[in-house]
Amino acid sequence: MNEHSNIVPLRQPDEIDDPLTNILRSGARQLLAQAVEMEAEAFLAAMKGLKRPDGRDRLVRHGPGPVRTIQTGIGAVEVARVKIRDRAVTSDGERIRFTSAILPLWARRTKSLDALLPVLYLRGISTGDFQEALAALLGKDAPNLSPAVVSRLTTEWQLEYERWQKRDLSARRYVYVWADGVFLQARMEDHSECMLVLIGATPEGKKELIGFQVGVRESTQSWHELLVEAKTRGLKIAPEIAVGDGALGFWKALDEVFPATRHQRCWVHKTANILNKVAVSVQASMKKDLREVYLASNRASAEVAIDVFAEKYGAKYDKAVECLTKDRDAMLAFYEFPAEHWDHLRTTNPIESVFATVRHRTVRTKGSLSSTTAKLMVFKLLCAASKTWRRLKGTNQLPKVSAGVRFENGIEVIQVPENHAA
């Protein structure tokens, strides 16, 4: 006989009934278990040829490991790793060991959660609020992220950063580079250091992080050190063109280290500088006219648009006109490269997009980080963002710099030598 009860359990104030997340978590648990199982089976199949002297398999399953909880982006997921036993011992006493690539031996959370920490901090969440923020995202069983845990992660990031700083660049070539400096006040004090960022595009069109270090503002010396350091590690071939803000000490340093590299000023920065010199009532109209310049179909049209801009605003807003015309050649250098790449070369957007909201982090927060930890968090943020950077458009990614080949308004032009017979 079934017993019926009219007792209804009360929901706790901090509990959220989310059946969709529960279903997703259950499905994730099953998929993870299946993936771990398939990984173990593939390993055993690859080692099938190894036998003991009596003909039996040398490697066999040895039951499941203890169940552990892995923190993921959808909360806690329980899973047990597969154990594999080596039943033979070699003369030197070594055994074959199976280590899961999906479920490392001591892993307690996915790498995406570690990558989330820099994003949380640089978007305005202090270290003292990490736990509360993750609990809101992942539930009350979110991983413990006390300052001590953050400190251990920082040590790991420091080692990763040092390895990255020593990597060999002799086999790399970057046809384009983007440079910018990001100011981040780690403790929100009056003094701030500048994070110097250098991104490059390979001939295949992939954007990569070339250099990153903390500098004294955006001085020529700081940029010179960064460029020389990259050159010392093997970056011998000069990029075709560099894109950056006009206020950087980067340009003088670039001429000293890679004098053959062309200059392209960022149109986003230039537009903002020009509009800052006029009244708000004029900015909308002036911004539209500036778009006629950098969105022109060819350089000749852009030159005409600059002349029209100067004639239209020169009488009343001479400072704005001077701000544009003084860098005329550097603003239009992108027209000498493939038209498919113009969208990429007009701005420092690969860097700007990563730090779009970091620049506005000005509120003093508790438990703020030291400048060293802030630097490592910026580095981790850049590494994570690099995986999503947009590739260069077009199939012919590499601007041809061989003799007799050049670009005019984004179109390849082959020059015929004067002594070439007709």
Question: Descriptors for this entry?
Answer:
422 residues; alpha/beta; five-stranded mixed sheet; 14 helices; disordered C terminus
Spatial strand order of the main sheet: 5-4-3-6-7
Strand/helix succession: HEEHHHEEEHEHEHHHHHHHHEE
The assigned structural class equals: alpha/beta
The oligomeric state of the chains shown is single chain
Q: Return the average pLDDT rounded to an integer.
A: 76
Tell me the β content. Answer: 15-25%
Low-pLDDT residue spans: 186-190, 360-367, 416-422
Number of separate helices: 14
Helix-residue proportion: 25-40%
Distance between the termini: 105 Å
Total beta strands:
9
Rg for CA atoms: 29 Å
Described by strand count, sense and barrel closure, the largest sheet is: 5 strands, mixed
Q: Give the overall shape, derived from the CA principal axes.
A: elongated
